[in-house]
């Protein structure tokens, strides 16, 4: 497991928040708060607010090591970005929903709110690590401080947030970051190929593209914009995804065997967990090779 991604807070006395899930310090919130439907991802139906039958008294999963063979692949893909332990240990100061059932509904409602804020913090922290985005580092730091303060709010303050509005504001910064980081790569590609990649004429701008099941084996997607692209079941074996913007790209069952994602950015662990890969897949240093690859 790679190190926890953290960001420095403006108040050094409060410590740094972890932006990876730490289930040992969470009250199994995702196992209760979230609903799921019997499908290829889940072996059964479960309503929101209903504890999963696999959740034990100590808030640990009874089949954690067997989730995929037991039909709970969806659980292995979910990532709260550290929101679970933040709510459990900070917002509610270690008082769990079994001890205080009157607050359970509120606690469960907070999970998607804080998760979205922590996801923004994950991307902001990564953006601040990108040298080519240095011109935006001041704006990015300001946004990080603002979102961090929101994430530390009281339950009532958090539930009153217009998270979509905050996401929209920060997303504008992510778009500018992406343009700066990919500028050198895409400019070179346009000069050589009229805006297309080297292999197979693949366009560099594939934002939101429907590439479900696409044959992209060995494709040159170096510096490509794949924000929100649908790559479900796509064949990306040996593809070059260096310096590609992968925010929100759907990699469910995509084959990344031998693909080069080193230097790609805005990629999350949950995206990798949803995909297929092998020992030859090159990953960014902040992410971990999924155990099922």
Characterise this structure.
The chain is mainly α and 293 residues long. It is built from 8 helices and 2 strands. It has a two-stranded antiparallel ribbon with strand order 1-2. Mean pLDDT is 90; it is low at 6-16 and 188-202. It starts with 5 loop residues before the first strand and ends in a 20-residue tail after the last helix. The chain is 33% helix and 1% strand. The chain is globular and about 55 Å long. It has helices at residues 30-33, 73-77, 83-91, 104-127, 137-151, 155-159, 163-193, 269-273; strands at 6-7, 17-18. The relative contact order is 0.10.
Order of helices and strands: EEHHHHHHHH
Radius of gyration, whole Å: 20 Å
Mean pLDDT, as a whole number?
90
Strand content: under 5%
Summarize the structure.
The protein has 293 residues and is mainly α. The protein is 33% helix and 1% strand.
Keywords:
293 residues; 33% helix
What is the topology?
Blueprint: E1 6-7, E2 17-18, H1 30-33, H2 73-77, H3 83-91, H4 104-127, H5 137-151, H6 155-159, H7 163-193, H8 269-273
Antiparallel strand pairs: 1-2
């Amino acid at each position: 497991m790679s190190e926890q991604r953290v960001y420095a807070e403006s108040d050094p006395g409060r410590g740094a928040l972890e932006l990876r899930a730490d289930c040992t310090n969470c009250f199994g919130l995702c196992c209760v708060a979230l609903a799921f439907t019997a499908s290829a991802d889940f072996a059964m139906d479960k309503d929101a607010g209903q504890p999963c039958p696999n959740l034990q008294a100590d808030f640990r999963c009874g089949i954690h090591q067997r989730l995929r063979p037991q039909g709970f692949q969806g659980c292995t893909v979910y990532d709260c970005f550290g929101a679970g332990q933040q709510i459990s240990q900070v917002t509610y100061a270690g008082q769990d929903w079994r001890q205080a059932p009157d607050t359970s509904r509120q606690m469960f409602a907070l999970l998607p709110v804080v998760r979205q804020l922590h996801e923004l913090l994950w991307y902001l922290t990564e953006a601040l690590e990108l040298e080519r985005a240095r011109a935006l580092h001041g704006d990015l730091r300001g946004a990080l401080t603002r979102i961090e303060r929101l994430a530390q709010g009281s339950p009532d303050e958090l539930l009153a947030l217009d998270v979509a509005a905050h996401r929209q504001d920060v997303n504008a910064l992510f778009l500018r970051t992406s343009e700066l980081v990919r500028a050198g790569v895409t400019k070179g590609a346009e000069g050589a190929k009229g805006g297309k990649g080297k292999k197979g004429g693949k366009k560099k701008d594939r934002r939101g593209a429907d590439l479900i099941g696409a044959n992209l084996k060995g494709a040159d997607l170096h510096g490509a914009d794949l924000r929100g692209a649908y790559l479900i079941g796509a064949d990306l074996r040996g593809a070059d995804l260096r310096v590609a913007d992968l925010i929100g790209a759907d990699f469910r069952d995509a084959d990344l065997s031998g693909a080069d994602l080193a230097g790609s950015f805005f990629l999350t662990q949950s995206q990798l967990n949803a995909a297929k890969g092998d020992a030859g897949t090159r990953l960014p240093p902040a992410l971990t090779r999924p155990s099922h690859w």
